[in-house]
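Troubleshooting: if your tokenizer reports a length mismatch, compare your output against this known-good record of 447 residues.
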Amino acid sequence: MAKKNLKSITVGFVSLGCPKNTVDSERMLAEIIQAGCLISSDPDDADVVVINTCGFIAPARQEAVETIKHAVDCKRKGSVKKIIVAGCMAERSGKGLFDEVEGIDAVVGLGQRDMIADIVKQTLSSGRQSVYLEPSSAAINDDRARLLITPRHWAYLRISEGCSHNCSFCTIPSIRGKLRSKPAELVLSEARELISSGVVELNIIAQDITSYGRDLGKKDSLPELLEKLSAIGGVRWIRLMYLYAAGLTDRLINTIRENEKILHYLDVPLQHVNSRILKDMKRPETKEKISRLIDKLRHLIPDIVLRTTLIVGFPGETEEEFQELLGFVERARFDALGAFKYCAEAGTPAASMPGQIPQEVKQQRMDRLMLTQQAVVFEKNKGRIGTKLTCLIDAADAGAGRGRFYGQAPDIDSICIIRGCTAAKGTFADVKITGTKDYDLTARQIR
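Known-good structure output:
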């Protein structure tokens, strides 16, 4: 498409959802910019608003619906001309979105991500609603040439699409298809591109990064990929996100322990610990396997930082089984923990299971779980007072800085608030921890 055709078009862009969705948003923004459009600093005042949505669970869909309705209000006032809804919610609902929220002009599925600039033009010139949905379950996206919406010194690196696990509560395989691993050379090419643009921290993501290569007949191939990534000059930190517990092999653990660029930080979503519930979730772990894994990790990598995600209120969860989960959290002493109230998602096996838990019970259990975890974190943070750490600086202004040590992932974890910070954004600084502020650490820079 000739750039002159789109030069006068302003596009407002809203990105919702997980890091995988962020990567898709960055690719779409790059396509829009390369086509000659202007990205509006105010999505409420643009020719076209593109909303890249999440459709994983009900709260995410509700956030998307509210965002769309806000754009529709702007359209009715005349400050916005057209509204395009893309991403997982668009893929899941298709043309049904037109009935769910009036005022949408186009629905764009995951397989049409790289056609977004053409779709913007077509939508702006069309007087009818349009649907762009084609099968995407066999596609392997090329995520090179992105316009980063993360700070320029860190980025997400997606190594595969989809998921071949069959967790009974999850909609991801039905939305994004089965596992499709990117060829290693494509992953390495993208990593080089990100590093050449100034990225020093690569956050490795997928639905489950430990499954990388299995669809290609290669078992336990993540360690080999990580070794190749760490050999690229310029990368300082490699962070591993979304690891299936059953996929943490001895070879992978040893690679994490021995490779100085791979951070001693693991994000391992466990979902629960009760063996009966795990079986109903169609997870391969048991309480005993999980406990042995945590003990092994802490024995082999003493400074390991562990993050997990749990679900409360899964169908049939008894008070006794929830108490078992609370006790496990107290003993496991995770450094960070996220939790969800179970949502009955249409089309998933768990949605039709007996013993659905009332919403008020789910909320009570969520509150009790997070208070239990809060006590663990506050105690662990106090134990860091007086220690010296190296921080990657995310912001610095007039001697006040915000940074993260290796045990703090961007956007989801706590931060270090640094007094006397003279280091520039995107560089590393040695600090001494001086105190705590809620979940965050306070520090001063060591010169």
